[in-house]
Amino acid sequence: MILNQYALKRQITVLALLVVIVIAGLYCYVTLPRESFPDITIPYVFVTTTYEGVAPSDMEELITIPIERKLKGIDDVEEIRSTSAEGISTVAIKFLPKVNLDDALQKVRDKVDQAESDLPTDLQDDPIIKEVNFSDMPVIRVVLSGPFSLRRLQNLAEDMQDRLESIAGVLEARLTGGLEREIHVEFDLDRVRAYNVPFSSIVGSVNNSNVNMPGGSMDIGEGKYLVRVPEDFEHPSEIFSIVAFVRDGKPVYLRDIATIKDAYKDPLTRSRINGKNSVTIGVLKRSGENIVRVTEEVKQVVNDMRPELPQTLQIDLTADQSNDVRLLVADLENNIISGLILVLAVIFFFIGGQSAIFVALAIPYSMFITFALLTGFDVTLNMVVLFSLILALGMLVDNGIVIVENIYRHMQQGKSRPEAAAVGTDQVAWPVITSTLTTLAAFSPMLFWPGIMGEFMGYLPLTLIMALSASLFVALVINPVLSARYQRINVKKPAKNPKAREPVVKRAYLLLLKWSLRHRWVVIISAVVLLIGAMLTLSYSARARSFSRKPNRAGPTSTSKCRKAPIWRPLIDWWPRSRKLWPNMKISVMSLPISGLWVVTLFPRAAPAPISAGWFWTLKISTTAPGHHQQSSKRSGNGC
Question: Average pLDDT in the 202-227 region?
Fold first, then answer.
């Protein structure tokens, strides 16, 4: 074959290539970004619009239908679904998998902007347009708790939030469970009715008083100065002096018809840790960033800030996704080392000598080449890629065993090392290539798997193809050169009885083979019976499982470890009812068989259109058992 002949003629070049492969592979392995899940494009865009106090039928007529009418003109749309609930409208646009999501997102924004003229003018917030991304999941959570009020914890968390968001690779640090300051203006309706003043004019006077007014510029001597009228409020007491309106030439102040309170917004999230109120900071990383590096820098920032924070403040780190990545990477390294040892032991037992070392070197060299290819194709070291590398680990030595053993056999027949390497590789090159291509052909259809799942699982065949192609390159180029330069054979005296020198396994195999050749029909009929029996057994077991499966009354996402009860509530009164429901939920969570640290976060979210209508409560439980890595679970909809 041309490739191996070319390599044998330039052995020094191949040996220099080995050094380059080792250096490049180690560098790529160290710098390869690590993350939990592949960064895939989910072709969904959600348009969520809130309009408090509006019935579902009115939401559909006023919000959903005008938006849907504009969205129907977008190209590459596979399906549009909408849900109208009390106070909220959700429109889900599913695009074709081939579409560029950034372009699709911009098209949706343009269409929603066109639809704003048909929407009610008193909407408090513009429609929210958002895509779905795995990067929106926090990679680690920082939980602050202690003998402080929620507002104090919120202030401490905001200081830490600024430091965390300054870390390279951090996209956002989200706060949950705190209280935000809000000034409440509570009108005395009897006094407002007595003055007979429109309520809208009073609200307008409050809004117009809390603005900065530009006053132009003023020339004084040779200088030019900007003039501005700062009228934004710096203290709640300033609101008392607002002139609400003028009656009979006398100003009526806001304090005369309303009460101003320095209070807090109605909290939309709630977080507790081990039964105590807390504030949680969820750290999100940017797409393609190294999750291990980001979490390490988050921990470093937390440690650096501890001396600046109160000593009684308790800081816990939960839901660290980098632990799973570290575990998988450690498993990969352990499997590589174990594979080297097992390959050396097996090949040394059957072949012996330097052949065991030459074949075992195919594992690290193939891995180094694969890491370089992953870096070139901009693929991160995620769970799917790590699983694929572990799966391919046992197949990396197959080609090397065939070629090295054939070279060794030709050397035993008296050929020189270069001649044995050339002839032995040529004899089995095409069978080895064909064997590898058949394995690649079995995985290649997965590259064309359509949809979101196909994009997610596409990293598995891609990684396997890279690894097996690298092992084929090592077998055809590197192994012949190493054998031609360093292979040795053990010259032994011929025995009087050659069969007595054969291994026991080989002699037993020869006896079984001779018997099978003499009883061919027995072997064929036995194989057919085994095939039919295996198919019948598989079919029977599948039917048995389907008949024995009990109906799931707790919802489609429930498991045997969790009993769920529906906790759906309308958005308009979700927080008052949550305060009544929270003690029962706390008791239920604390009764779970969890040891160590547990964190519970409760917040409402808009259900996507494919699920159902309404707002749901999402319950997140993050646990850290003593001596174990952190775990987290998320239940939404019919949450547990």
Answer: 73
